[in-house]
Amino acid sequence: MKKIIIPQFLRKSLILLIGLFAISSLFLFNCKDPSDKVKGLNSSDEVKGSKKLTSCLFPIRQNNKSGFINDSGKIVLNPEFDGVGSFSEELAYVAVDGKYGFIDKQGAITINLQYDLVSEFKEGMARAAIGNKSGFIDKTGKIIIEFSKFNYGSDFNEGIAI
What we know:
Helix content: 10-25%
Number of strands: 12
Strand order of the largest sheet: 1-2-3-4
Mean pLDDT: 74
Structural class: mainly beta
Largest sheet: 4 strands, antiparallel
Radius of gyration: 20 Å
Distance between the termini: 57 Å
Low-confidence stretches: 19-30, 32-55
Strand content: 25-35%
């Protein structure tokens, strides 16, 4: 039988990394929203992603539908969408029957499901596409940068999009 020997310095490094991960996880997932309305979360539900969201809501997938839970694991927006994105700037994109739009933290549709593809909001704008044309919309759904023949564009970062 072979033994695996881990050098002392490597063992201490692994322990330090695990400890740092545990501590950072406490900060990443420590958020409370007193307005959360909750329902039970079944143990078979899958939590998608691992980053803290600005709204403290996390995407889940249950019975082939997507919704959101809070940091306590309670369902706050029922899984009724075909797909969802993370909340960004207080809105999250949702998909139903191949069309995308946006909802707020209460689940109200703020931008109608009319786009073929969208991105998360950054710097007050989201990339949206209809067919082979894409442009940028604001949080009300108003077109900020006209849809063009370009089928791809980057999100805004420090005021610049490519």
